[in-house]
Amino acid sequence: MNYDPSNPLIVQGDRSILVEVDNPRYAEARDALAPFAELEKSPEHIHTYRLTPLSLWNAAAAGLSAQQMVDVLVKYSKFPLPTNLPTDIADTVSRYGRVRLERAPAPPADAGAPDAPLAESKLRLVCPDRPLLEELARQGKLKPYLGERLDETSFLIEPAHRGVLKQALITVGYPAEDIAGYSEGAPLPVKLRELARSGLPFKVRDYQRDAADVFYAGGDVRGGSGVIVLPCGAGKTIVGITAMTAMQRSTLVLTTSITAVKQWHREILDKTDLADDQIAEYTGESKHIAPVTIATYQILTHRPDKKEEFPHFKLFDQRDWGLIVYDEVHLLPAPVFRVTAQIQARRRLGLTATLVREDGREEDVFSLIGPKKYDVPWRELETRGWIAEATCAEVRVALPEPLRMEYAVAEWRNKYRLASENPAKDEVIAELLQRYQGSRVLIIGQYLKQLRRLSKRFNMPLITGQTPNTVREDLYNKFRKGEVRHLILSKVGNFAIDLPDANVLIQVSGTFGSRQEEAQRLGRILRPKTGGEVAHFYTLVTRDTRELDFAHHRQLFLTEQGYSYSIADGAEILEQQRMTG
């Protein structure tokens, strides 16, 4: 094999991959690499990816073979691959599915006795590799969940251990393929409309249909659990609704906020033939249950006392659900993992814009919700016109002289907040508001003191966690109609708000280095615009501070999706404004 020194990749024996940004084949190589490698660092000229077990297993679950991954590395590498790497990749990929969970053969039933429901019928752990099974059976993490030895290649497993066993297997490096099947759930006849209730024509986009089809897999046991990764604004809700209509079963939708519950409710009612009384909301405001029930993570994890159990977990058993949809699965609260481990007989669909979790529990998403089944790069959907074209800019602002000493002597944990709340950002915001005075602008941030200051100075409405839901919905509706053109949002603006014509977002502060938050915020302005306008994403950061360090980590997400961001100087922006008058 002749390697080309002009290629953009340097592949190293420690599974890291260096990618030259200033290379004609950079974009092509990045897109080929992204399905099976994880981006770790993205400074200006050299980006670092890493082949992790989880990135390789997700790619394998989505249908990529080890050889296809090696072929990508060979195609774009400057130098011969380290000799150990193809073998390492093949070994890691082969671990996925070496161990399987299946339904155990039922014992002979008494004549006329009904079969046990799937949720109660026994399972078996199967591993044709006998030495490997012996090794696994001696693992302390697995032993408690292994039942009777059935034969040389399998153990009996209690249904209640299905989830925790999969968690244990992935921690020892052998993620199970779960083909034990599902409870079908209560029937629910439901069809998609060709003409939405709103009067607009409705057609499922090709990638939305593909994602739902890959998840459902025609009802086969190899479908029914997994995660769909699509950009905010690309219609993940429609994927969930399409999966519902494929299954024709009662569905429980879990999402991040009451605003998101209302949005799911509106979309299901608008796009399907279900009647309003077949859809219920289970939130802090109202607790009703119907064939399609939409609940918040917040209500599920609410308990009067930390020593008590979670009273609303009973929702999982109050109907025979055929499908559970986890919206924004990267934000799934830890207690919900516990109950998800107990309901592995239900089909489970995760929807997200990014698999990155800030708590590092990506392995739990893989084992309990399912592996990544479908992923489309954001820039691909942008090229096809399904999401808006976006420009991304980081504006660096200096700390005013009086605050520099305060920052210098501040305790480490307070430095980030001081930099985030830098009042010099306000002048840059004023100039950007002037520049985009005809546009619909969102200002979003982390710290309420800063946001209240901006709300007062620019006479803009502010929505926070304390804003009553009726007021929130009223402001969102006015924004959609163009009656309000500028809004300031706290962290509540990160999630599932449908503001299709917002085309400028100014991020004034954020949650440290959160890549998932960067994804959510960019997504707020990516819905296609009626006139095809470009969306603009600005992040204001204070130079020479901790905020700048965290900004680099947040921007990993933009790089992963193929966006480049320009660096602008706040002082130069203000100088341009003064010169143009």
List keywords for this structure.
single chain, 581 residues, alpha/beta, Rossmann fold, 4 domains, seven-stranded parallel β-sheet, 22 helices, 23 strands, 18% strand, globular
The chain-level structural class is alpha/beta
Strand arrangement, major sheet: 12-13-11-14-15-10-16
CATH architecture descriptor name of the largest domain: 3-Layer(aba) Sandwich
Counted by DSSP, the helix tally is 22
Present the secondary structure layout.
Elements: E1 9-11, E2 16-20, H1 26-33, E3 38-41, E4 46-50, H2 53-61, H3 66-76, H4 85-95, E5 100-103, E6 123-126, H5 130-137, E7 149-151, E8 154-157, H6 162-171, E9 177-178, H7 206-216, E10 225-229, H8 236-247, E11 251-255, H9 258-271, E12 279-282, E13 292-296, H10 297-300, E14 323-326, H11 334-342, E15 347-352, H12 362-369, E16 372-375, H13 378-383, E17 390-397, H14 401-409, H15 412-420, H16 425-435, E18 441-444, H17 448-458, E19 462-463, H18 469-481, E20 486-489, E21 504-507, H19 515-523, E22 535-542, H20 546-554, H21 556-560, E23 565-569, H22 570-580
Parallel strand pairs: 5-9, 10-15, 10-16, 11-13, 11-14, 12-13, 14-15, 17-22, 17-23, 18-20, 18-21, 19-20, 21-22
Antiparallel strand pairs: 1-2, 2-4, 3-4, 5-6, 6-8, 7-8
